[in-house]
Each structure stands twice: as C-alpha cells, then as structure tokens.
Design brief:
Protein name: Glutamyl-Q tRNA(Asp) synthetase
CATH topology of the largest domain: Rossmann fold
Family: Belongs to the class-I aminoacyl-tRNA synthetase family. GluQ subfamily.
GO molecular function: ligase activity
Keywords: Aminoacyl-tRNA synthetase, ATP-binding, Ligase, Metal-binding, Nucleotide-binding, Protein biosynthesis, Zinc
Strand content: 15-25%
Bound molecules: glutamic acid
Distance between the termini: 35 Å
Cofactor: Zn(2+)
CATH class of the largest domain: Alpha Beta
CATH superfamily of the largest domain: HUPs
Oligomer: single chain
Largest sheet: 3 strands, parallel
C-alpha cells in the first residue's frame, strides 16, 4: 500500500510553492489508491510562526484535501528523536562540534548543499550539550532513482561531510527528524520539492545506519520568482482562498498535467476525482526549478 505525506513547516501561511507540493504528493498517493498523511514540521521554534499550522491545515481543507490519520507535530516527538540519537551515540558514530559558523566558513569548501564540514572536531573529546552533534559519515556513495528527476549518486563524506543531527541550540536537525518520522509513520513514497533533492542521500544514509526501511523519492520542480524560491518567509504569492479552483488548476499546469478536462468539473469533489484519475507523474517536468 502506497503511504505518502505532506510535511509543511509552519513558518507562515501557505503559498503557491507549498500548494504545488501538496497537490503532487496527494495526487500521486491517491492515483495509486494510497494513504496521504500530514505532518507539521515545527522543530525549528525560532522560525515557527504561531498559528500558521492552523492556517496551513485550513488552506488544505478549503482546497478539498482529505488527510488520513491525525496530523503529527514534530514538536511533540522530541523523546523519540533523542532515543534514536542515543542509538547512534552508543555506536560511537557521533561527536560534539564546537566550531563556529565563521570557523567553518574559513576552513571548509562549499559543496552542493552548503559547506562540507572538514571534520575539525572529529577526534576531540567534547561532551557539552551546548555544542552541535554531528554524525561521523563513511566515505560511501549513495545511489537512488528519483521518480521524477532520474538517477542520483552522491558521496556522503566528500559531498556533504559529517552533518549535524542536533544543533548547538538543542534543536534536532531536520535530516534526523524527517527520517525517523517517515519510518515510524510507515511512509514509503515521498513527493516533495526539488530544493530537498540533495537532502535525500543524507536521509538514505541515516536510514541505513538507523536500520530503518528505504523509501521512494520523487522531487517536483520548485517555483521561482525572479530566480528565488517562493517562500513563506518572503511572503511570495500567498494563496488567495477565493480562487480555490484556479489555484489548483495553476498547480496542475505547473506539474505538466492535462488540466483542460479537470477544469470543466464544477464541484471540488469531481475536480479531485478527475485529477486523481488523470494524474501522470511522467508528465511532471524533469527539471529542478520553473520560473513563474
Ligand atoms: N518541512 C519541509 C518544508 O516545508 C519539507 C520536508 C520534507 O518534505 O521532507 O520545506
């Protein structure tokens, strides 16, 4: 059984970019008679905007999405993340890191997704909770077939380096939490924006060292405006709730789908039924960004 999900961060109201991800993950799951769950990724409290979880869920509801199971909040699951982290600590494949951002910027080279940590603190014995905790990665290639973007092969050590599992401010890192939650929620297919494609190999690596099941990934293009990703923070294109159908049609168009037939449906229920039936993931553009 296909089990998919949509995992927004509540950092502001929903915008066109996140609606695209919601539509793609929903249609891909429902086209295969699957389950679709919603998880609120609210670990990064400093970035969380109070009440925006509710706004996002209302926006989904108003657009006719139906999620299965109760919505999961990451902020309620800190003990779970700690218990998985403890397993890695016991294996002695984590270490504390006292490097400041500046020190890293001065000594590291830039990789495909930020700085490649040069391992400065790998052999130091630090044990303060005020330091970031990193995983000691192996010199290993991770290879996977993305449902949309095709084959990806990356070397974890050379292209990312030892990455953070818990930040120095005590916040569990996205990479760690997402892998644990997807596994515990039995998610087996993840459709999300291509801005996260380079996180996938680190997530597969964590699945491997935590003995968690593998998942299938598909990364849809990200909408950009003036070459910048639409984001809740910059308030780009918040969703206008009075045009629900137009919003959804714009998403289908963006995702390369045949939206003309769907457009003729005059109720939201029929709209979704037709869109689910006609969904064809092979039509989604195999590119990382689309300027709108
Ligand atoms: N919470 C992330 C975001 O809103 C998505 C995480 C994921 O889909 O893995 O960008």
């Amino acid at each position: 059984m296909y089990i998919g999900r949509f995992a927004p961060s509540p950092t502001g109201p929903m915008h066109f970019g996140s609606l695209i991800t919601a539509v793609a993950s929903y249609l891909d799951a429902k086209h295969q008679h699957g389950i679709w769950k919603v998880r609120i990724e609210d670990l990064d409290q400093p970035r969380t905007v109070k009440g925006s979880d509710k706004t996002i869920l209302d926006t989904l509801h108003q657009h006719g999405f139906h999620w299965d199971d109760e919505v999961v909040y990451q902020s309620h699951r800190l003990d779970i993340y700690q218990s998985f982290l403890s397993k890695l600590n016991e294996k002695k494949i984590t270490y504390y890191c006292e490097c400041s951002r500046k020190e890293i910027a001065d000594s590291a080279i830039t990789g495909i997704d930020g700085m490649i940590y040069p391992g400065t603190c790998r052999n130091k014995i630090l044990d303060s909770n005020h330091h970031a905790l990193r995983v000691k990665v192996e010199d290993l290639f991770i290879e996977f077939e993305d449902k949309i973007q095709g084959g990806i092969k990356q070397n974890i050590l050379k292209e990312f380096g030892d990455f953070i599992l818990k930040r120095s401010d005590g916040i569990y890192a996205y990479q760690l939490a997402v892998v644990i939650d997807d596994a515990l929620q039995n998610i087996n297919t993840i459709i999300r924006g291509s801005d996260l494609i380079d996180s996938s190999s680190r997530q597969i690596y964590l699945q491997k060292i935590l003995s968690l099941p593998k998942v299938t990934y598909g990364h849809v293009p990200v909408a950009t405006l003036n070459q910048k990703k639409l984001s809740k923070e910059n308030q780009s294109m918040p969703i206008n709730i009075s045009n629900v159908k137009d919003n959804l049609i714009a998403c289908l168009k963006f995702l390369g789908q045949d939206y003309e037939v769907v457009r003729k449906e005059n109720t939201l229920t029929n709209f979704w039924a037709t869109a689910i039936q006609l969904w064809d993931i092979s039509l989604v553009p195999k590119i990382k960004t689309i300027e709108i």
